[in-house]
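I had to read the description of the data format several times before I understood it. For illustration, here is how one protein appears when written out as sequence plus structure tokens:
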Amino acid sequence: MSQDSVSFRIVGGPKWIDEDRFNVMATVTGQWTSQRMREMVRTLLADRFKLSAHAETRELPTYMLVAGPNQPLRIRRSIVDEAACQARRAAVQRREQVPPPVPGAPPICGSGRTSPGTITAVGGSMSSLASSLGQFVSRSVSDRTQLTGPFDFELKWTPDVLPQVPADTPPLNIDPNGPSIFTALQEQLGLKLESTRGPVDIVVIDRIDHPTED
């Protein structure tokens, strides 16, 4: 847990949950699914951190992602084949061999990358963009564009606070004089974030203990 993309959805807990970092190593046997991974993480948190928490819905400030008024859209329709992609992902989950992507050929499945100052997507949706934006504006963002994807897009901006990266990792490619995330959305994609209020699902920490080393 950290004071970053989802901190506005987490309430309570001691100060160290925003400061301490932990390395976790785990092995998955059998078929991998996102549901199974979530269950394993819940078990780990309850076992090693003695985490006890409950969910609530609270009325909080939020943003709506909308098409910018009097601005042309600057996102491209993607050529990703949704049906072929779903079939490929199902084969991967069954641990079947799938052919590698052909260099220069249209991508079979979409891809995306999210990091401070950059969001890129091939075959992405507006709902996934809204979710990614929420990581950087500290509010829940809902898609109200009424745009059906998939789309290809790239968004670049300058964070209000440049993130610190470990000395042994490559520096982030961030222009210190670039636009804010709000300006970049309008200028680069023709989209806009509008402030509003709405119900937000949050997690309230009832108890959490600092883990002991193995």
